[in-house]
Amino acid sequence: MPLTYSSFGLLKGLRQAAFALRRGDGLRQEVAVLAARLRRDQARMRAFLGRELRDLDVLELGPGQHCTRSRVLGLRNRVTAVDLDEVLLGLDPRAVLRAARANGAGRVVKTLARKALGVDRAVRRAWAEATGAGSLPDPRLVRADVCAGLPFAPASFDLVASWSVFEHLPDPARALDHVIAALRPGGVLCIGIHLFTSHTGHHDIRAFTGGEDALPPWAHLRDGTRHLVRPSAVLNGWRLRQWRALFEASAPGAAELQERYGEDRLRDALTPEVRAELSGYEDEELLTVDVFYFWRKPPAVPAVRPEIPVVRAVHEAAAAHERPAAAPPAPVDARVA
After folding, report:
1. How many structural domains compose the chain?
2. Can you tell me the distance from the alpha carbon of 39 to that of 36, in angstroms, rounded to the nearest whole number?
3. Is residue 254 part of a domain?
4. 81 neighbors 150 (Cβ within 8 angstroms)
5. In the 8-state DSSP scheme, what is residue 164?
6. What residues pair up with 161 in beta bridges, in sequence order?
7. Could you read off the pLDDT of 25-52 as tens digits, one per residue?
8. 266 within some domain
9. Which alpha helices (H) appear in 132-282, and where do they start and end?
């Protein structure tokens, strides 16, 4: 398993840092769009949870180096952020060394360049303006691999959320099981997935740094153009039907909400020639960029015994009769101790 789900080299990291610097006023516009989408997601969380997002224990998977959503959610809640990468919120030398070992030189150079050029400060300031908050608190950071397990007691969180993380995981099913175990009964799950079959599902960094026109539409899905794509992240390549099957099996009844951005432009790109190359794909998965799954964990229902004394005595006697003898302690596996 890779140490990081990104595959940034030095040049890709510098390209992204340079693009962030060039954005100027475009940064505020981008943050305004992202903040509006986060407010949309928070409204959905409230609806599924049935109460305000306040005084909750929240877990975010894969917050990224900015931890933006964790910080916004942390305005009213206690937020823990788990990432496979070492997240650098400051410039502690020991943390930088850990990040170099864990994240790779390319990602660390990109992060340090952003900080040196003031990009991180600008991003944080733009988010503070977009949310109307004077400052945004840092979350509690934990480095862990959700596929291998989470270092928390079962039922530790009221809300578990992630955005554009599960498409990078080598074992989404195991990760989802770990996430559900960490969720309290009555808690809510919010999982956003950037679909591999969307026009930017290839995660080529050019598509996110002003160079989308350099790539043919859905280049990664077409035999004649697949060689042009240079992914900047590890991708599991799951399709919509696979995500649906996973959530139906592990979180039955989960609501699926699709998000499409620039649909008219994308439909225009589906020329007869392109459609012929993409004949194995439905419009639904080609035009949907993000798909969200919302699910509320069923509340625990305690067993209720009859209160009639005689009946209660019968139940207690039966329970005592069926109680197994004490077993010797199980051996401890040193690998998980």
Report:
1. 1
2. 5
3. yes
4. no
5. S
6. 60, 190
7. 678 889 999 999 999 999 999 999 999 9
8. yes
9. 172-182, 240-250, 263-269, 272-277
